[in-house]
Write a structure and sequence with these properties.
By secondary structure, this protein is of the alpha/beta class. Helices cover about 40% and strands about 15% of the residues. The chain contains 20 helices and 20 strands.
């Protein structure tokens, strides 16, 4: 007999059949879930339907609403939340000590009014006494105690109104605990003095976007190793500060969902209207609003959104608030530049032998001596082959790779095992190694010119030019030099006239690029705002600068927007 499909499973199926609109990132999480159902066991993962349904059933079976029209009524989660928790709590991992939860970190971004804090409060109570963790330590964390108490006080009121919990928990002003056990639930804030000694089993960080520093996040992130199966649950609206701890977690979440960074411990459910291309959000289209407001028609009313949208349209000063809080758009003048779905269509790869003897242009982007260095070759089209081909090379000091993996949460070690990095001996980049490598490439390819940034490259540039005979071209890093090749590279990607071979490091760097725009609309990569590395893309742009200068191709397609 076939097994009955849960509400969560029906929602997931409807999303995949395009019956329910969602953001691209929510869809990516759902696709990841379905993909892992097929091959997750290869990585020690398995899905526990009972565990998934257990947390969902907890809400109507144990909890009741605490205000408004839902006061005193069983808390029946809407299908969108059931799907989110189904995936988050259903996945487990097997190890030599048995099974444990798969996800240690959960980043959630929903529009205002979509029951975020209510669900967070309910999860705190679930983790306190129903998840099954002995001596559970549950914390509602924030930058200040007043904010931390919002989730805690809602949970306390839920417990007081619940016939089941009222007699099973000791409820006080600063603490909820399970009698006869060490399990407790407390609010805590950055101002508290004893955060470093905590051993959390579950941490709820509400409205992460208002955190001005990473202090609270860092403390609890570092404590995740003190328990066998902890969970750090962050839930937030969108913000505006792209240097904030919240945006860093969102960026990391995007990379996990896109498959750029493999991390089986990281969960993300990011709602929001989608970028239609180069920062263009069609925010007035009501059919998009459900992507940021999955509870539309229930907890979120369409008339309310319409009124807010009308005010935003008539009063430009209200627009950013509407975009952030109601449609989950991070409002800023800076945005990611490369559409990664278009980038992924340019994976065609040619072998060394197929490129042997072809004319190309190179470029060096040298880091500090402890960081990534990049050398990129760009092969120009021929009469027989209209495509540009990219051949990147990346260098990293061997001795600090393990530290970098932990610090940056980037799989440098995996990429090295895939032969995507060339490691130089010691704890600093050996430029002599790079020089030898560049000279070796000349035996296979016709390197017409090598572009360089004068930063940290004087000695090797002199050696390559004066001693080795390469034609070297200094490429300025200002708008005047980089705007044309930056825009041209985007055009080549959008028209699929370039082939990068699917290099994982170059893909990661492409996803990291933030562009700076001047008043005339010209753009160039902005290394300061691109918090992760973009050296390979900068080298590719410099190589394209050389090719455009040599071939007289100083043109762009006016129909392609690079802003």
């Amino acid at each position: 007999m076939s097994r009955a499909r849960s509400v969560a499973e029906k929602y997931i199926a409807d999303v995949l059949r395009d019956r329910i609109p969602t953001s691209k990132l929510v869809r990516l999480q759902i696709e990841r879930h379905v993909r892992d159902l097929k091959n997750g066991r290869q990585r020690g993962l398995f899905f526990d339907r009972k565990a998934a349904q257990h947390v969902i059933d907890y809400f109507p079976d144990v909890l009741v609403g605490v205000d408004g029209e839902f006061d005193g009524l069983p808390l029946e989660l809407p299908p969108c939340w059931q799907a989110c928790l189904w995936i988050l709590y259903g996945w487990k991992r097997k190890d030599d000590k048995g099974k444990r939860r798969r996800f240690k970190f959960a980043y959630n971004e929903w529009g205002r009014g979509n029951l975020k804090s209510l669900v967070a409060s309910g999860l705190c109570l679930y983790e306190l006494h129903a998840f099954g963790e002995a001596g559970a330590q549950v914390y509602a964390a924030a930058t200040d105690r007043k904010t931390a108490r919002l989730v805690f006080d809602t949970a306390s009121l839920m417990a007081q109104k619940s016939d089941y919990l009222r007699d099973r928990l000791i409820i006080s002003k600063e603490n909820l605990c399970v009698p006869g056990t060490a399990s407790k639930f407390e609010p805590c804030a950055a101002e508290d003095q004893n955060l470093m000694g905590l051993r959390p089993s579950f941490v709820c960080i509400d409205e992460l976007h208002v955190h001005r520093s990473s202090g609270v996040w860092d403390v609890f992130y570092s404590a995740m190793g003190k328990r066998r199966q902890p969970l750090m649950f962050a839930i937030t609206n969108s913000g505006f500060d792209r240097n904030s701890v919240c945006y860093r977690q969102r960026e990391y979440s995007e990379k996990v969902l896109q498959g750029i960074v493999p991390d089986d411990t990281w969960f993300a459910w990011i709602c929001g209207i989608d970028d239609e291309g180069q920062g263009d959000f069609n925010w007035e289209d009501e059919s998009n609003w459900i992507k940021a407001n999955p509870c539309l028609g229930g907890a979120v009313q369409l008339d309310d959104l319409r009124q807010a949208a009308k005010k935003a349209k008539e009063d430009p000063s209200s627009l950013n608030a509407f975009l952030r809080f109601r449609l989950c758009v991070w409002t800023t003048n800076f945005s990611h530049w490369m559409p990664m779905d278009k980038w992924d269509l340019c994976k065609l790869r040619l072998t060394y032998d197929q490129l042997r003897g072809r004319r190309c242009f190179g470029a060096l982007d040298l880091s500090t001596t402890t960081d990534i260095a990049a050398f990129v070759l760009l092969f120009e089209p021929t009469d027989e082959d209209p495509l540009w081909y990219v051949l990147p090379f990346f260098f990293l000091p061997k001795d600090n790779i393990a530290f970098r993996c932990r610090r940056d949460r980037v799989p440098y070690d995996v990429w090295e095992r895939h032969n995507l990095f060339e490691l130089t001996e010691g704890n600093i980049i050996d430029y002599r190694f790079i020089r030898v490598r560049v000279n070796a490439l000349r035996e296979d390819f016709d390197i017409a010119q090598i572009g360089f940034d004068r930063w940290n490259s004087t000695e090797i540039v002199t050696q390559l030019g004066e001693e080795d005979g390469f034609e070297m071209l200094k490429v300025g890093q200002g708008m005047g030099s980089l705007f044309a090749p930056t825009k041209r590279l985007l055009e080549l990607v959008l028209t699929q006239d370039i082939a990068h071979g699917g290099n994982e490091i170059l893909r990661w760097m492409a996803s990291n690029v933030i562009v700076q725009m001047d008043p005339a609309g010209n753009i160039k990569p902005d290394k300061k705002r691109s918090r992760e590395k973009i050296d390979g893309i900068v080298a590719l742009i410099m190589a394209l600068f050389c090719a455009m200068a040599a071939g007289g191709m100083q043109y762009t397609d006016p129909e392609v927007s690079a802003a």
